[in-house]
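Now produce a polypeptide, keeping tokens residue-aligned:
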Amino acid sequence: MARLVIVSNRVPTLGRRAQAGGLAVALQSVASPGTLWFGWSGQTATKTATEPRIGEARGVSYATLDLSASDYGQFYVGFSNATLWPLFHFRTGLMRFSRDDYAGYLSVNRSFAEALMPLLRPDDLVWVHDYHLIPLGEELRRLGYKGRLGFFLHIPFVPPAVLQVLPPAAELVRMLCAYDLTGFHTSRFVQDFLASARDLAGAEVTENSVRLDGRETAVGAFPIGIDAAAFARTAVRALETGYIARVRESLQGRALIVSADRLDYSKGLPNRLEGFGRLLARFPQHHRKVSFLQIAARSREDVAEYQSLRRELDRMTGDLNGRFSHFDWVPLRYMTQMVQRPRLAGLFRMARIGLVTPLQDGMNLVAKEFVAAQDSEDPGVLVLSRFAGAAEQLRDALIVNPYDPDEIADAMHAALEMPLEERKRRHDSLREAVFQGTAAQFCASYLDAFEAVPLAA
């Protein structure tokens, strides 16, 4: 049986299960004994390591490399998060391109390939994850690796008219064609990639493959999910904790609206706060009857755009509460510290509205966690951006354009006024989608397709 090799920018803390949503949590279901997980240690050193540190926990081997401060700046802060992240989230005005950063990005991927290559076996299934490591497959091919290489992009992909803003756009497309299977969350992202491969790289494309430079790459949509049953159990248990009891007491019977995100400009946080302000301005019947909790955990604090966003949200929070607060009611609660998953599950369970309105998102697992956490007998309502990948599956959410604060306000008002029977009908449909499209199902569907792809001669 082939060994699975997972390659990602960050590797879960050795010996501990992942504590947050996203890539690491989704892959836990296939990180079984015998798996090798390779990536950056999350640490910087005087120079980038050439040989990985290897440890083992629960039968899984973890191999990690430290990066030099210079490589970290160019590879991670620079090209990955100041260039690719805004580009793939349609924020070309925030994109900063530097040839030095791009050279550093390629150099780190080359270092990763050189450190990983001696650990690989010919029959391994090497599954590379996310935008940090797009060139890794091509670097492994250059070193002579002929085994199976797969790639999955956890963020959106953009159409060629947007991608071509990036000077090395054609090179990036070519790198994605070095894999045997390249996967995306949604059919829209697949179509955008196929169009980019055709228009920018001159590839021959079909509805599910790309042929470039004599190599055929299979392409598919694989929507990522969560362990819905486990999250639902966590949400029920959380109701008995002192934390949730204190939250419930502080609400004094008010309906809870909850949002939980990283502090990131792709999440549409200013538009969301403005939408809540429009709700209070246009529908005064909700005054003193709702409380909005926005959790925006700090991230990438060494990136200037994130510092600016935090200042803007601080200002908006003060302005909104200043306009609408009473001595016994503060409508918006805004916090930037991380909330532990069990507590978050409990907050979702008791919320009347889950407000998930990113400007662009590859999938957005918070939307699925909110659905999984709900009480089917008295469920809350999911308000979801049409530009989240999850909207392709969760069609019975209240779908909104996140660029329109009034549309967000209208959806919140509709959710607060929605009769129980409609809430239950919508939730039943959403729950079915979330419980069928789990993290384990995502991994299984990708790996089944990966193993079925014929190896290049």
Observations:
- Confidence is low (pLDDT under 50) at residues 15-21.
- The first helix runs from residue 23 to 27.
- The chain has 16 helices and 16 strands.
